[in-house]
C-alpha cells in the first residue's frame, strides 16, 4: 500500500459512509479526532479531512490508515485530497505575518495609538487590502480571513501594548510588540515601509512577484517584511541587469572581485569561476520603490558576503562590511604580533651519555652480586 495514493472514487465512498454514520460514529469507528487544521468541502458539506483521507485508503488498498500513520496537514491528508480533485479549506486562519502587522500598526499610529472599530472605513479598507496580499495560500484561509472584525481586534492588540496604555492589554503576540517597538524607534522609516507595502499591493507590483521556490527566507533578517524582501531578491536575480553590471565593471578594466572582501572566483576556481559574481541591491528596502533599478544601485559581492549582509538587520552596505572585515583582520594581526605562537619543536631523541652504558653495567653487576 502506498500511503497517499487515493482515488476520487475512494474519497466519495468515504464521504458516503461519513454521511450514513454521522460525524461522531464515523470518527469513533476509525479512531480519528475532529480536524483542527483542514476540512474537506464537498457539495456544501464540511468533512474532517484526515479521517476521510485515512478511510479512503480502505477502498483503494484494503484497509484504512491509522491516525498515527500520517498527519492531517497540508503535506499529507490535505495534499492527497487536493490531488484527487477535492477542495480543502483551513479551519483556522494563519497567524499574522510581519507585513500585515506593519500595515495594522501604521493604521493604529495614524489614529493616535488607539484601536479602531470594525465599522470604521479605514479598517474595512485595510481588510480588503490584506485579503489581496500574496502571503498566505488560498487553501490556508477560511471565510473569515482578515475580515473587518479580525482587523479591528488586531488594532486593539497593538494599541493596548503601547507603553502609554494604562489598562489590561488584549490578546496579542510577540510580533505585535516587535513591530510596535520598530514604529516607536523609527517612525519615519517604518511609515515608508508601510506605504511601500500598501502601494505595492494596490498597483499589483508585489502581487506579481515570482514565488520563493522553497528557499530559506528564515535566514534573512528584514524588519520591513517578506514582500519587500522578495522584491529585493527578485531585483538581485534579474539576469539581464546582473549581466549589464558585470559588463560595465569589465569595460572599466576592473576585476570581478567582491566589493566587501576582495574574493575573486576566477582566481580561486580557475575556468569554473570565470565571470561569476553575485549582485546585491544596495538601496535599503524602505527606500526602494517601484522605480527602475540603476546599475549604481547594484554591488558585486561574493556569496558569503551576500549572505552575511542579509543575515541580520540593519543590513550593512558592502563598504561597511569591508570596514568590518578589515578591522577584524587588523585586530587579529595585532594580537599575533603581541602574542606570537612559539615555534613547535620537533622531538629529537637524545644520544646516550658516553658513560651511561658503563654505569648501567656496574649497577647491574652490583645487583647481580
UniProtKB/TrEMBL annotation:
Keywords: Endonuclease, Hydrolase, Nuclease. The keyword Hydrolase applies. It comes from the Bacteria. Residues 344-355 have a biased composition (Low complexity). Residues 245-307 form the HNH nuclease domain. One of its GO terms (molecular function) is endonuclease activity. It holds the Pfam family ScoMcrA_N. The keyword Hydrolase applies. Residues 339-369 are annotated as: Disordered. This is HNH endonuclease.
